[in-house]
Amino acid sequence: MSCAVERGIQHPSAMRATSQLPARLLLQRLLICFFLLSIAAGVTDKLERGQKLTDGDTLVSAGGSFTLGFFSPGASTKRYLGIWFSVSNDTVCWVANRDKPLLDKSGTLVLNDVGSLVLGDTSRRARTVWSSNFLPASAAAVQLLDSGNLVVRNGSSNASLWQSFDQPSDTLLPGMKLGKNVWTGGEWQLTSWSSADDPSPGDYRRTLQTTGLPEIILWYHDVKTYRTGPWNGIYFNGVPEARAYAGKYPLLVTSSPWETTYGYTAAPGAPLTRVVVNHTGKAERLEWDASSREWNRIFQGPRDPCDEYGKCGPFGLCDPEAASSGFCGCVAGFSAANTSALVVKDNADGCRRAAALDCAGGTTTDGFKVVSGMKLPDTQNASVDMGVTLEECRARCLANCSCLAYAAADIRGGGDGTGCVMWAYAIVDLRLVDRGQNLYLRLSKSEIGWP
Ligand SMILES: *[C@@H]1O[C@H](CO)[C@@H](O)[C@H](O)[C@H]1NC(C)=O
Ligand SMILES: *[C@@H]1O[C@H](CO)[C@@H](O)[C@H](O)[C@H]1NC(C)=O
Ligand SMILES: *[C@@H]1O[C@H](CO)[C@@H](O)[C@H](O)[C@H]1NC(C)=O
Ligand SMILES: *[C@@H]1O[C@H](CO)[C@@H](O)[C@H](O)[C@H]1NC(C)=O
Ligand SMILES: *[C@@H]1O[C@H](CO)[C@@H](O)[C@H](O)[C@H]1NC(C)=O
Ligand SMILES: *[C@@H]1O[C@H](CO)[C@@H](O)[C@H](O)[C@H]1NC(C)=O
Ligand SMILES: *[C@@H]1O[C@H](CO)[C@@H](O)[C@H](O)[C@H]1NC(C)=O
């Protein structure tokens, strides 16, 4: 007899729930299973239709990695339904009722008779605090998977009607995605908590920018505060440190007619990991150290003044080593737009071209100067063609008077790279970075060829 597929939660309400099942034989088997399990393990990863999870009960994923239950964050006494790492029970990675806390311990999670997953409050008139939005009908079970994903299944099929991975909170786990689902028009994004004690949506969001080349943007409300730099085929161009952990946690960018997404997986045996956008506006990647029982930070962004979005203004160049001059300078062929501002070490007005370009009616005398070691500028409005060589890219950029700069879009093949990204608007958020790329900047011929 297999109990594994029919384990019930260890709670009196489970008995009431099973009594609604029609087949007597099944009922007997289930009751025996409950009895055995209450002795043997007392844990389950599943809630069947009609069953109830009350405050104090938990679901534990089959491999034991994740736990679902009610909790109060930090000093708060409010109750939330969430999923946390079993080894680190104050590390919550998903919250169902972020901005609808329960005020006491009367919460219940039910997969109700019409097959909808409902978090209610029994102290008052069966208030619905949260419900998953899928077409009800035939949902038979909700299961907490060992990936940390809570899925509602249609009958015994594997097809999920709803999953918590589609409604991220502030944490990206292996197997989750950021970006756009072209098919449904939906977007996956992370939103910080309001504070350590309050999981309601806070000031910061982290999204995948899907125009130009894919890159991850951190937002304070509607203002960009930090970007990772564009995807270069291997890692995000401004985060070279990802090379150190990409073997353990392979990064995955998918551009297809159905989706433009970023996600990552965990190699077999790799430690637990998570990416969080915290309420102070930092994105972090952490890794669990089982021996010290602590989370170690292996990435944080923004990490220095040059990561501050657009710090040096249009055509400005930020150098993290140049603290004494306020970090900001201009790219070759440009000088500070506001000379008095440069004196006060603030370059927010950006830089101005020293010598005008010469391009009209299909002829030009302009050329390109290579600026190396770059985190490439924001590609939001850049045009991209993955299918051309860098030489063709140069020719295209030269032939179009609006083109201000170009760079390779993909460095996987080594050398100077392939593919083409071209900027026709201001060059914004440029900085020096380890293993940075070449940016080819259009300049007047009078500026080219100087040493
Ligand atoms: C969380 O874990 C700590 C230490 O592992 C334990 O003392 C505490 O009781 C746990 N809290 C809950 C709510 O399970
Ligand atoms: C659920 O399963 C039933 C029968 O297997 C099927 O007819 C129905 O279309 C499925 N519903 C969804 C939303 O997948
Ligand atoms: C359901 O998923 C499990 C685990 O991913 C897999 O082993 C199994 O073959 C799947 N079953 C069907 C019918 O797709
Ligand atoms: C937020 O992240 C930063 C950078 O990793 C870290 O220094 C800080 O302690 C974090 N704050 C909280 C409240 O977790
Ligand atoms: C130049 O910068 C200074 C100091 O930041 C500012 O007061 C002034 O308005 C700026 N001038 C122009 C023309 O933007
Ligand atoms: C791209 O264009 C939009 C709309 O004109 C503008 O708001 C945005 O600032 C531009 N982004 C960059 C990086 O230039
Ligand atoms: C030149 O570049 C601009 C900006 O990317 C674009 O809108 C325009 O279509 C291009 N012109 C030609 C002739 O390709």
Please characterize this protein's 3D structure.
The radius of gyration is 27 Å and the shape is elongated. 9% of the residues lie in helices and 39% in strands. It is mainly β and 451 residues long. The model is unreliable at 1-21 and 23-41 (pLDDT under 50). Bound molecules: 2-acetamido-2-deoxy-beta-D-glucopyranose (7 copies). One 2-acetamido-2-deoxy-beta-D-glucopyranose binds next to loops.
Name the descriptors.
single chain; 451 residues; mainly beta; Agglutinin, subunit A; 4 domains; 36 strands; 9% helix; binds 2-acetamido-2-deoxy-beta-D-glucopyranose
**Strand arrangement across the biggest beta sheet:** 26-25-35-31-36-33-34-32
- Total DSSP E strands: 36
| N- and C-termini, Cα separation | 81 Å
For the biggest sheet, the summary is: 8 strands, mixed
Indicate the mean pLDDT. 87
3D shape: elongated
Uncertain regions: pLDDT < 50 for 5+ in a row? 1-21, 23-41
Contiguous helical run count: 4
Content of β-strand:
35-45%
Q: From the alpha-carbon coordinates, what is the Rg to the nearest angstrom? A: 27 Å
The helix/strand class is mainly beta
As for the number of domains, it is 4
Bound molecules: 2-acetamido-2-deoxy-beta-D-glucopyranose
Helix content: under 10%
GO molecular function: protein serine/threonine kinase activity
Organism: Triticum turgidum subsp. durum (Durum wheat)
Subcellular location: Membrane
Protein name: non-specific serine/threonine protein kinase
